Amino acid sequence: MPFFMNTSKTAAWEVVWNFIIHGGWFMVPILLCSLIAVAVVVFKLMTLGKALIIPSRLAHELEMIEEQLEKGQLKTLQSDVTAGETALDRLCAVAFHNAGKSQGEVQEAVQSAAREEIVKMHTGMPALEVVITIAPLLGLLGTASGLVLVFANVGQGADAARVGQGIAMALNTTVAGLAVAVPTVIAHSHFNRKIETMAARLEVLMGKVTSACHQHVYLKNR
């Protein structure tokens, strides 16, 4: 059984290698695009986790922030977010740091910090967009090059080997370019939707925080 498994693996690798070789030089940048896409996807999976952006524990505490304000526990929450390292912690720290100012000034400070956090969440997304655009174009370039080779050989007496080489180049690069672009489009759409969802959630929670900060200052000055 292991022998047949090793044989099948070897045959599969030979098929993949022949596919790449017959695609010509345009397969090199297409493979580079695939490596970039994989690296960015892994990076986004590691950095866009909910625990790193909006931890459930802190989100629950902010949902109940008015009750904490009534119980006088806002100071405890302030010390907790100051020591935190998530995006929600940092935004809460900005709100608490500006708590003595007017509500409009607090909201402006939080919005500026939120824009910075959203920019961080979009890190790597432009690279996926470039791969989505470039990979199919590289496939088309390979297709055009392969067809040029085919027609050039047809005009010179139709060498079957070279015609076959040109056809292989034309088809393989097209397939490779689309094979890289399609999953990259799916990943880009998924991450983009995830960022939009978390940004909306941050906006709701920070609205509660800025309102609570304003109310806390008002009650303290009465």
Supply the number of helical segments.
10
Largest sheet: none
Tally the structural domains: 1
Which oligomeric form is depicted?
single chain
Unreliable parts: none
Percent in helix: over 70%
SSE order in H/E notation? HHHHHHHHHH
Spell out the blueprint of helices and strands.
Blueprint: H1 2-22, H2 27-47, H3 50-53, H4 56-63, H5 65-71, H6 74-83, H7 87-97, H8 103-121, H9 125-155, H10 160-220
Helix pairs in contact: 2-9, 2-10, 6-7, 7-8, 7-10, 8-10, 9-10
Describe the model:
- The protein is mainly α.
- The protein has 10 helices and no strands.
- The protein has helices at about 1-20, 25-45, 50-55, 55-65, 65-70, 75-85, 85-95, 105-120, 125-155, 160-220.
- The longest helix is centred in the last third of the chain and has 61 residues, at about 160-220.
